[in-house]
Design goal:
Number of helices: 6
CATH architecture: 4-Layer Sandwich
InterPro entries: Endo/exonu/phosph_ase_sf, Endo/exonuclease/phosphatase
CATH topology: Deoxyribonuclease I, Chain A
CATH superfamily: Endonuclease/exonuclease/phosphatase
Protein name: Endonuclease/exonuclease/phosphatase domain-containing protein
Order of helices and strands: EHEEHEHEEEEEEEHEHEEEEEHEE
Pfam families: Exo_endo_phos
Number of strands: 19
Distance between the termini: 5 Å
Structural class: alpha+beta
Strand content: 25-35%
GO molecular function: catalytic activity
């Protein structure tokens, strides 16, 4: 049985209403018509904002672009990041992906920017576990995952057995606010990412067996060689294998100056006046059992330097289970 497992940061897939409407009579100049919107019962609505700004829906053109990329990828199980909530994911699957994925999973996380991790699957989903309340020993009273570490059992089509367990996460960003000190801000972000990696290793050790079939995927916001990710990357107990170590590109990258030194990248960032940085932020780590079943790996290369609907490129592996 061939199974494709992918990961894709959808870059702020929000579905908030922006309270705009199209009333033909008003557009036609009928000044005798007026429209009033009322919000009488706070139980019936919620206006969500971040840093004082209204959270708006993802641009239609950008949403269509990420949908096209997902349809081209045609993964059997797709881990996604930066999704507002389960209704947003369900709406996206129905209206943009032509209901390609009959199974959708997402648990609301802790992030103040309202971005969560989720799973779209053609294969049945079994047990679902959220680790949104997991903490690090150095901060036992605070959740360590701002988004989540989502654990999902993937079953065979007849639901007779578990094929593998998928762990999807989105670690601390390297982004620093304009008012942050660049040195201390980076130290703080790196420390958080390191602690998230440490807790991830602990959970995987507790929840899996050495000969088990499982994968850790998601937007790690750091390179595979980073010391911040070392707790699970170099874990002797887990012995994870980088499923993208020999990934192929679906198309050549756009010309840039300088061009990426390696095809192994999914994220491009260019600071003002600085050369672009190309890094493999989006990763797929396989257990030894799954790694023996891997037959290929791909990165869905963007057409525009800035990205096609997302500043990340999707990646996936092919397994013969």
């Amino acid at each position: 049985m061939i199974v494709k497992i992918g990961t894709f940061n959808l870059n702020n897939l929000f579905s908030r209403f922006n309270f705009k409407g199209r009333i033909e009579a008003i557009l036609a100049g009928d000044t005798g018509l007026s429209v009033t919107y009322t919000f009488d019962d706070p139980q019936d609505y919620a206006i969500r904002s971040f840093m004082g700004r209204l959270v708006k829906g993802k641009d239609e053109a950008a949403t269509t672009l990420i949908a096209r990329r997902i349809l081209e990828m045609d993964a059997d199980v797709l881990a996604v990041q930066e999704v507002e909530d389960l209704p947003a994911l369900q709406h996206f699957n129905r209206d943009y992906l032509r209901s390609l994925y009959p199974y959708q999973a997402l648990v609301e996380g802790n992030d103040p920017r309202l971005i969560d991790v989720g799973v779209l699957s053609k294969l049945p989903i079994g047990a679902l576990t959220s680790w949104r309340f997991a903490s690090h020993p150095d901060e036992p009273d605070s959740p360590i995952f701002s988004r989540d570490l989502l654990e999902v059992e993937i079953l065979d089509p007849k639901r007779r057995r578990r094929l593998f367990t998928l762990f999807n996460t989105h670690l601390k960003s390297q982004y620093l606010a304009p008012n942050e000190n660049p040195i201390t801000g980076k130290q703080r972000a790196d420390l958080t990412r390191r602690r998230q990696a440490e807790v991830t290793e602990r959970i995987l050790i507790e929840r899996t067996r050495p000969n088990g079939a499982f994968a850790l995927v998601g937007d790690m916001n750091d390179s595979p060689e980073s010391e911040c990710l070392a707790p699970f990357v170099q874990s002797r107990a887990l012995e994870l294998v980088n499923g993208l170590s020999n990934a192929q590109e679906t198309r050549p990258p756009r010309r840039d100056n300088p061009s990426p030194a390696s095809p192994l990248w999914t994220h491009r960032y260019k600071a003002s006046g600085q050369p672009a940085r190309y890094e493999l932020f989006d990763q797929i780590w396989l257990s030894q059992k799954l790694a023996l079943r891997q037959t290929a790996a791909w990165i869905g290369r963007r057409e525009k330097l800035g990205g096609d609907g997302s500043d990340h490129d999707p990646a996936w592996v092919v397994l013969d289970i």
